[in-house]
Structure formats: C-alpha cells, structure tokens
Specification:
The structure is a homodimer. Chain A is α+β, with helices and mostly antiparallel strands. The first copy, chain A, has one domain: oxygen-dependent coproporphyrinogen oxidase. Chain A contains 8 helices and 10 strands. In chain A, the strands form 2 sheets. A 7-stranded antiparallel beta sheet of chain A has the order 1-2-3-4-5-6-9. Chain A has a two-stranded antiparallel ribbon with strand order 7-8. Chains A and B meet through helix 6 and strand 10 of A and helix 6 and strand 10 of B.
C-alpha cells in the first residue's frame, strides 16, 4: 500500500500550497482594508517571497520550501507563511526517535522520510489584535504516515469574546469530523503550549494534534478543515479589532508578552527543533520569532 | 578529605559575593561618569536587588541567590549580576548526566550537590560598546569538586582594538597561572559560544573552562583572577567607548545582533538549561536575555 502513496503526498503538498495562497491573499486584503489613522501613512503591507532549501545528509536534493514574510505592514508587524516539502534519508538520531515512536518498524539501513506542511505565525502592530500560530503537516515513512498540526491564540490583551469565538470555531471544526477530537485536541494544546520554567501557558490555547493516522482521506479532510477554520476565524478577529485604538503601555505590554512566545519556540517547540536539527534554512525555521521583543 | 570541604565552599561563595560587590560599584561609577548628551537627561542607573530561591526537590531549603539588575541606565541598557549558592539532592536526570561525566562515583541513593557562582551579562545602550558575559562557579559533589567559567565579548560593531585588548588581557590572566590554559580555554570558548543552526559564532569569543579540578587553591586563585580580569578589562573598554556617538542604524544593527545572543542562550547555554531544569527562579536564570531584540 505505502508504495502507492505518491498520489496522497501530492494531494497533501498541493493543499498546503493552495492554503498558502489563500492566506497570503486574505492577509494582503486586510492590509488594504485598514482605516485607523495610526499607521495609515505606511503602504499596505505585501509579502516578500523566498525559496528555501534544506541541507540534508545528501549532497543533492533534500527538498525545500517557500518562505513568505510580510514585515512592517499596517496591521501585521511581521507575519510569516512557510510551506515546505522535504525528504531524504533520516539521520540516525531522528531515526532513533522515530523508532521509539513506532514510526519505523523495518530495520533498513537507510530509511527515507517525506514531510510536507504549512506554518503560519503572525505578530500584530495593534496589541488589541492577538498573535496567532497555525501549523499542519503530513509526515511519511515507508512504514506509516500521519497528520499533525494545531493552532493557538496569543493575545497580550485577553478579550473573552475573541477567545470564545476562536475556541468555538475550533470545536465546530473538530465536531464536523469526530466528536472525540475537540476535548482531546484542546487538552493536547493546553499541555503542549505550556512553559514549564515559568509555570504558565504561552497563550490562551487552541488545538494540537499529532500521529493522526486512521484513514488517510478522512484525516486529510480534517487537516484541511483546520487550515480553513484558522483562516476564517483569525481574519474575522482582525476585522473586529484592527481599527481599535491602543496606548504606548499596551504596546509595551505586547513586546514583553512576546518574550513568552520566543522562549517557548526556542526552548520547547518541536517544529523548531526538527527544522534546526534537520538542516533547514534557519531564517525560515525562525521566521516565527517576533519582530521585536522586550525582556524586563 | 571531602568532608572537610566546608571551608573551601565558604571561601568560594564569599569570593563570588565580594566580586559581585566590586562589579556593582564599578558599574554604578560608570553610570556616574557618562558625559555624552544622548541619555544624560536620565538619572545615572542604579541596581535593584532581589533575593531569589530555588524550588528544588526538597520542601525546605534548596539554596538561592541574589539577583541584581540595572535597567534603562545611561550606559547600561540592562545588566544583571547574579550570585547563587544552591544545594540539595540531585534529581535523577542530572545524576545520570553527572555519572556520565564521572562527577559521581559512589552508588548512593541520594547524592547531594552544592554549587556556587556568579554570572554577569551586560547589554549596552551605545552600540559602540560591546555586550559581555562572564560566569564563574564552583561545583561540589561528595566524590569531587570543580571550577568552571568563562567570559566572551559580543560587539555588534567589531573594533579590532577592543577585541585584541580583551583577548590579550585574558591571555595574560591565563598565563599567570598556567601556560597551557589560554590556547585550550580560548579554543573551548570558540567551540562553546557557537551557533550551529546559523553556522556562526555568537560573538568574538574569549575563554571558557570547565571541570578544572587539579589543586583547589590554585584553581580557586585562577577563577578569582578571571573575575578580576573581566571587570578591569570590560570597564576599560566602556571608558574608551561609551561617549562615542552612534546612529539609529547602529542601534538597529545592535537590536538584530542581540537575536544571536538570545537564540544561543535559550537553545544551547548550559547554565540556562541547568538553571531552568533545577528549578531556579526563571527571572534570575533568564536575566541574561536582552532588554530589547529584533528578529528580521
């Protein structure tokens, strides 16, 4: 069965490219629709696009991606949208981890992997707007495949209406596919997006899932729905909040709050670790880091 | 012999307190002696002092320290001087690491450790002045003891004269104690203060040493000399540079350069890992993080 997986891989990587296009168009439209005086002197932000490469263990082709970043926009202070499709032989350390996670069963000397995904992190000019993270991916080894991903909201000023709206949309999304998903994936996000050394959550949560590998078509459809739900929900929150006023103290609070996000990503985040250790372009992997941070 | 180590422990922790006092007095004098117009409207910076505690595996006393931070000064944008003396039973994970490093030989169920040290990190207002790090420490287990530490310079604008001056002072310091130290400890710093994911050094190096355990008195005297050399050398560099002009572009370059320091400390630094994992106050452990950082 797994030798025939070329079609599924193509469907998945095509979807991530498609979602990327929709996100980029939506975010540029948001830049155009901003009306508040502060920042209107700037041009509406636009993404700049760069191809990225992975320096894997092979000399030749290890895969790569497209990194799209909008910096210094009216609404987005920095937002990155990365897609990548990477492949090649697993290095020994990752192979060991994957064996422990039962992702590799056969005892071949060289085990090839394939992974494709999209990752979005947005840091906002206006502290009334939350920062957000979304990532979905498909992973493949000759023995198995799985989907993973998640999204979480990181508001420096917590607004109950936005938090409820975000969680409800994710619950509805999960429920459309499997009633057991939401409670499980919400708890997973609470556990995962947590900063042990500070004993606090990095944000207000969302959903997180990994190792989803029951039925390819159903799991893929769910993964697509997570991406679509993220996009419609987050743009709706921005439309509600982006023209609200803010103070210098609000901005300062946001810069300090971003320290949590930075600490989390550099110390704990799985995707960041995998990216840096598997030799992907560090600028693409660390695209998630905020444009400006304060540590008191 | 090791049961009599109470006196040595006391000598070491007293020294770290003494060095702390000298550093704090010197840095406050530097704030007073600043004459450049930019920033002179501010009051000369002063340290604020806070006691810190370690939440170890015991309910009761696990040791702690003194965290002294000066923020928003005329010369120092943020400088932290931490001293701590911590002790208690080693947790299983650290015990395993220490066994691998031959720091524990006996097979006791509970192994107590004791560690005392000083750590200094300075981030400067003026990008003409380099950021700096210095740390020295004594570690003790019932089977052995050792000194470790180092110092390295992190200039966003590299000045050959300052870099030479810093390295030469460290060479002279090492040579006073053992002619083999400098080449070994300089290379160790080059290897240690390195950011593999970006394939660059985090700064311009200095010295780094660990596991120094040949003769207690001689090793202690060397460790003291590293602290004194750091202080006299760095204050001399500040005196030379702090009244030089800088541009907004210089400042921006400094904020971006600080990203390297932040990535290094959160991903690789041993002291940071040990501090966070052994339950010390995260604000004290992360005192090293810059007051403001930009990631492009």
């Amino acid at each position: 069965m797994l030798n025939d997986f070329e079609l599924e891989k193509e469907k998945a990587s095509d979807w991530f490219l498609n979602l990327r296009k929709n996100i980029i168009e939506s975010f540029e439209r948001i830049e155009d629709s901003y009306t508040q005086e502060t920042g209107l002197e700037k041009l509406a932000g636009r993404f700049s696009v760069k191809k990225t490469k992975r320096n894997g263990s092979q000399e030749s082709d290890n895969g790569g991606g497209i990194m799209s970043v909008m910096r210094g926009g009216r609404v987005f202070e920095k937002v990155g949208v990365n897609v990548s499709t990477v492949y090649g032989p697993l290095d020994d350390r990752i192979k060991k981890l994957m064996r422990a996670r039962r992702k590799i069963i056969r005892n071949d000397k060289i085990v090839n992997f394939w992974a494709s995904g999209i990752s979005v992190v947005a840091h906002m000019q206006n502290p009334q707007c939350p920062a957000v993270h979304m990532n979905t991916r498909m992973f493949w080894t000759p023995d198995t495949w799985w989907f993973g991903g998640g999204t979480d909201l990181n508001p420096s000023i917590e607004k109950a209406a936005d938090i409820d709206f975000f969680h409800t949309a994710l619950k509805d999304c999960c429920d459309r596919h499997d009633k057991t998903y939401y409670p499980k994936f919400k708890k997973w996000a609470d556990d995962y997006f947590y900063i042990p050394h500070r004993n606090i959550a990095r944000g207000v949560g969302g959903i997180f899932f990994d190792d989803l590998s029951t039925d390819w078509s159903r799991n893929f459809t769910f993964t697509q729905d997570v991406g679509k739900t993220f996009l419609s929900t987050f743009t709706e929150i921005l439309n509600r909040r982006m023209n609200e006023k803010w103070t210098d103290a609000d901005k300062d609070g946001q810069l300090i709050y971003r320290g949590l996000y930075s600490e989390y990503n550099l110390i704990y985040d799985r995707g960041t670790k995998f990216g840096l250790e598997s030799g992907h372009d560090p600028d693409a992997v660390l695209m998630s880091l905020p444009p400006m941070v304060k540590w008191y």
